[in-house]
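Ig-like domain-containing protein
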Amino acid sequence: METVTLEVELNQADVEGSWNRDGAKLKPGANCHITILGKKHTLTLSNLKREDAGTISFQAEGVHTSSKLIVTESPAMISKPIVDINVPEKEKATFECEVSRNNAEVKWFKDDVELKPTKNVAIHSLGRKRTLVISKCTPEDGGTYICRTADDNTSAKLTNLKDVEVVEKESASFICELSHDDVEYQWFRGNTKIKASENIKIRQEGRKHILLFKSVNPEDMGDIKFTAEKASSTAKLKVKELPVKFVKKLRDKIAMYKHRAHLECQVSRASAKVKWFKNKMEIKPSKKYDTESEDVYRKLTINDVDSGDEDIYICDATEDKTSCKLLVEEQSISIVRELSSVEVTEPFAAVFEVEVSMELVKPPIWTLNGVPVQEGADVEMEKEGTMHRLTFKKTKASMTGPVQFTAGKSKSFAQLTVKERPLEIAEHIKDVKAKEKSTAMLMCKFSATPEEVKWFKGPVLLAASDKYNLKQDATRGQLTIQRLTEEDSGEYRCQSGPAETKGTLTVEVREIKITKHLADTEVDEDSDAIFTCEINYADEDAQWLLNEKVLFTNEVNTITHEGKVHRLTLKNLAPQDGGTITLQSLDDVTGEEKAMITLICEANKPRVSPIWRKEDKVLKAGTKYELLHTGKSLGLIIKDVTKEDSGQYSCDLGTEVTKAKVTVREIGIGITKKLKSVEVNEGDTCSFECILSRENIDDCSWSVNGKTVKNEGRFKISSQGRKYMLIVKDVTPADSGEVVFSIKDLNSKATLKVEGKASSISNGLQNVSAVCGEDGIFTCEVTQASSTVKWAKDGKAIRTSKKYEISQQQKVMKLTIHNVSAEDSGEYSCEIVGGATTRAKLEIKEPIHKFTKVLEDIQADEKSSVTLRCETAQSPSTVTWLKGHTELRAGGQYEMFQKERVLTLIIKQLEEKDTDIYTCDVGTAKSMAKVTVKALLTTFVKMLESQEAEDGASVTLHCELSKPGVPVEWKKGTQVLKSGEKYQMKQKASVNELIITKVVSEDSGDYSCVFGDQKTTASLKIKAQPVTFKQKLENLEAEEGASVTLHCELSKPEVPVEWKKGTQVLKSGEKYQMKKKASVNELIITKVVSEDSGDYSCVFGDQKTTASLKIKAQPVTFKQKLENLEADEGASATLHCELSKPGVPVEWKKGPQVLKSGEKYQMKQKASVNELIITKVVPEDSGDYSCVFGDQKTTASLKIKAQPVTFKQKLENLEAEEGASVTLHCELSKPEVPVEWKKGTQVLKSGEKYQMKQKASVNELVITNVVSEDSADYSCVFGDQKTTASLRIKGRKRIYLKHYNVQNLLLLQHIN
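Structure:
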């Protein structure tokens, strides 16, 4: 709201004039004052607004002058900023600020995004107040909000607690941010204060407050509230519960008949609900069933268990299940006769026997080496009343290990030892005689399959080769020697481990003699010559030679062999054929299908014409046959051989023929699985199996011990594909020997060994228990009555004597030990000579006890004693008392007595938990009875007593009950009290205490201790203490800008007080913060200024304490001075400086001239920073500028770089009619540059004829009422720059007027 004055001075007084704005005449009014004083005409415009801007002109009798009025608004500043707020979710949030003027426009932003009015956002403007309202806040609305004017802005934060949803056991955090530091705050769940603990952490980081749940439980769910003085924020904590799991599952259980069975498990959550099922039927609480749920433990109790309770029980928690088996033990089973260890040699049978105290309802469990034994072909399990027997019919060394018998909770152990049979020679090598060139076979047999068999000739170890064929089938070893020579004679040895056998091979060497020699022969040319020779062996081959060259049968030679006679016929002889003839034989050839066979012979002359034949068919070269002839070598190659290629082939030279037999074997046929040797007992069934590499249509044959067998009687022969099988039933010793399978030229051999039925133990020894003085008798049964046995005690042999009596009744062997004593206890054994051994123990026992008087069920009152008494037929040496299944020890609550046969248990100071079944166990007998304890009524033994106490003290109320550990409830009047900072509740045995800390008048009243319908009450009276100031306020001095704290202390905490400055009551806010900690009260005055000096009082009731506060003002100085500046012409230049204090008024100067805010100069102040903005600078703006307050001053120089001025638009030539007005205009590159107008060389002056105008950079020359004399060149000049245009005037009828020239003086002042 500024004022401007415009003044015009004329050269004459008393001249009427008018003021106009944009052509409209101005009239005097409230904001417009027009005055005339002599030659001066003045216009004053007050309360300027933007619409007052425009061209202001003054006219008086032909005089006209004008000026522009530019109205710039004062900066729109924030006079009261918005503040941080914290609101609960779904509540309304309001930001409010004040601006420096009513018409100031503002814009609202959230995180730099402009806000517009919506359903949820409202923007209001009332006077200088600007308001932003957000209704139903959501977590997304949190953030930084800004209110921005054209010149200033203010910001604040909106925060709210966010709802948190987590899964059980995860962490959850709540964060709330305040606008101030050091504010009292509190966290709540519902209406309960939250306190820091191991699981809950509360911390503060500046203005940010954090609540952290490390591991959330379902009980933590609810509304979480944060309060700080009057501000509060609320959010919900939602917890998704984890599915219930069984942490500890049900376990199978064995319960005693007529006792109670407890099935227990543990769930993952205390609140989990479960259902109990017996198989598929739900169990409900009844006399039979009790269900318990305590914390995370779940328990099912089954009362008076009987056999019908045996079943599968299930505990179902919906998301998880657990089940178990309940087994009922009818009675306590004990072992009457223990297992005895057994030692046998494989494969003899082993028998174990055990006797229990009663017949079993459920089958017992037998294990060997910890593995359950199943009945089968080699395992037999028998039961005869209370006696149980386990028989291993065929033993192996690998079976050695512990044998265990389990019946209920009773177990018996024994050791099974199976010895390996030592490897022996079952059949020795027999001496063999064989002829030279034949084959010899040496064989032996071991008692068991050896790991490795070695053959030796003398000391030399033999290895498999073309000469030696080594075989091992099961227990049999075999050595085959091919093509015997004289050197093969000697001693052969077969060895495996310690077993060894020897045999001798004798090779009969034959002496070949020619019994009829060749005779010299002389024949005519072209005739035949015959040579004959006879040797002493018909099976010897021979060779014929002619001149050292081997001869063969062909077209010219014929060689025959009949018995011992060998004949050669030479045909068509020539003189050169003469010579000495000898004989040489040809080898036959064997090949496989699909292969290639080559036959080769040699002639004594290279020039021969051989003819090759198969049987009588002449062979020709082709794809099947290839004929070779290299020098004297002749050959025939048969390709892609088939079985049809088998036969006799010959090469005929005419004079001589040679023949060979070709044999073709089937491809790839062989035995992939050979026969395996078998060892069986007489009467058993055995089988042999052989597998070929491929199927074959030829017949096979089987032989057993040298005799060919057929598919009949005891022998079953079968084949399936490649598999061939022989089954022998009811084997006899006569079947022992070699079993041979033959097909075509293949065979496989194995050995069948049949063992005679050896004697073994059919019923082993059993453990014996005998009473001192009685006889102890051991018996065992063998399979053959002829068996010889040896008896031993602890490994020492027993002979017949007065002590020991050894006898035999057919197959039953008996040892009687007379008049047994403790020294006779130990292990006894019976060994079949060369066979099995059975062992058992003799235990010397006391007589079996029986109860003549049993325990009886009894009932007794709590706190009393009870006596249980029973009597046995004989005095027992050991007595055990049990409560349920727990063994009791003498001492404390229990006393135990034994007087001969009378046994006594006394239970003192009975409690409800002593109700149970009690057992007296004397080893061989048990007696049980149920003790039921009746609970006594609980009463108050000592009542509460009324008390008086002084204000601030602690008070203890206590009472005593007739029973310890009884839960009670404390009340004040009808209000139930909770344990916490105010109230502490303690219980020691039967004494209960209530401690009330720091009592005040309000704690007076009646207090009660309650349990059930029992109650005791006492009154508490508090003597109030007068409240006084323990510590008064103290005078303070502080420096301006600091924060000051005044504090005092009362004699009582939590007393409401009032703070005053002088008589003015102070309110908590940004300036004043009021705090209370117990009895201490504080007033904090922030950023004090001189005006805060004065007297401050703290008042309650008629009590008051006062102190004075004196503020020392700080001298104001320049923190940052002005700095010299250079700027380009036309730009804006900003000078700024900073003071040590904000809000200090300053004055800006250029040189000595005080500057005013306007279009040219803008002055800003933000806190302690002051700025001067000079717009559109020109060279004239160069100079020294100062910022001044009081006697402080800072100065800097501004230097403007001038821009060269040029004509942007030049003058243009014009034509006009006489009498008209003509306007010449041009534009410069710079505004407000002074120019000069010329007509030719004549400088023109502004007047009635010529009007010169300048608008920014545009210059105009208006020539009014032009005449022909105005035709000329006109120029606009500044400096050395010039633009010229010609004006041409067209003539018209002239009207002459007489003009009076008036010189006017215009003075314009712009006053702020």
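Residues 579-586, 1293-1312 have pLDDT under 50 and may be disordered.
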